[in-house]
Design brief:
By secondary structure, the chain is an alpha/beta fold. It has helices at residues 18-27, 43-51, 72-76, 101-125, 137-146, 187-192, 225-236, 240-255; strands spanning 2-4, 30-35, 56-60, 84-93, 129-134, 154-157, 173-177, 201-203. Strands 1-2-3-4-5-6-7-8 form an eight-stranded parallel sheet. The protein is globular, with a radius of gyration of 17 Å.
Length: 258
């Protein structure tokens, strides 16, 4: 049993063959799927997919790149939905900052504001966080600690191997490991992986993005979690059965799924 804790099933690239994608994954041993919230315009579709598939769940949230679409009241329409299990993906992403220093600081400030607002929503409704961090580890960690995100915990989605973030394992956070681990240039993540407690690791694809080897260049899909599990098993020298069992138990506990 594997759980894909982060897959954008509401993405247009799954529109024509979603049932086939899900069935391939199920036949391959993937038993639960979680759709993160990234672009608010897709929330209704994510909820519809979850409503029509007993093993699919979703989150409400807005990615830093779509922060201007943040609407607390719109999110609150879905937060109490029985299949809504988290808030996010929210966080900070400084990778694409452009313009003058003043303009960059203004965008950083806005990202922080929207990130904090989603942390407060998570605490209000007692939902874990799905946290996106890119080139912003220090600010993200500072905000998570300052605003007591440990009260709800969460997962660092697509963990970027920054050792500074490892201490968040003691603050109720899990680490999402995906296809990047199989990349030839993943030396930093390969080095850090053994430092993460196994009971704090969950598996994800981030499909349709970040397709693992040996399917690089193709659309990613939940079935490919098996390649992530195999790579973790190989690197940690732990049986794949143990990896699948433990990471699934971790995901069920994190998202309070039966």
């Amino acid at each position: 049993m594997i759980i894909d804790t982060h897959v954008h099933l509401d993405d247009e690239r799954y529109k024509d063959d979603l049932d086939e994608v899900l069935n391939r994954a199920r036949e391959g041993g993937v038993k639960r799927f979680i759709i993160p919230g990234a672009d608010p315009k897709n929330i209704e579709r994510a909820a519809w997919i979850a409503d029509n598939n007993g093993d699919v769940y979703f989150a409400v949230g807005v990615h830093p790149y779509d922060m201007d679409a943040f609407d607390k009241h719109e999110f609150e329409k879905y937060i109490n939905h029985p299949k809504c299990v988290a808030i996010g993906e929210c966080g900070l992403d400084y990778f694409r900052l452009e313009g003058s220093d003043e303009e960059k600081e203004k965008e950083k400030s806005r990202q922080k504001e929207v990130f904090i607002a989603q942390i407060e929503l998570a605490k209000k409704y007692k939902k874990p966080l799905i946290v996106h961090i890119r080139d912003a580890s220090r600010d993200s960690k500072e905000i998570l600690l300052k605003y007591n995100a440990k009260d709800v915990g969460g997962v660092l989605h697509c963990y970027n191997a920054d050792e500074e973030l490892l201490s968040l394992a003691k603050e109720g956070f899990y680490f999402g490991i995906g296809g990047v681990l199989t990349f030839s240039n993943a030396k930093k993540l390969i080095h850090v992986l053994p430092k993460i407690p196994l009971e704090k690791i969950v598996i994800e694809t981030d499909g349709p993005y970040l397709t693992p080897t040996p399917h690089r260049g193709e659309r990613n899909e939940p079935l490919y979690t098996i390649f992530v599990a195999k790579k973790i098993s190989e690197l940690l020298e732990i049986s794949i059965e143990n990896i699948e069992k433990t990471t699934s138990q971790n995901a069920l506990a994190l998202f309070n799924i039966s």
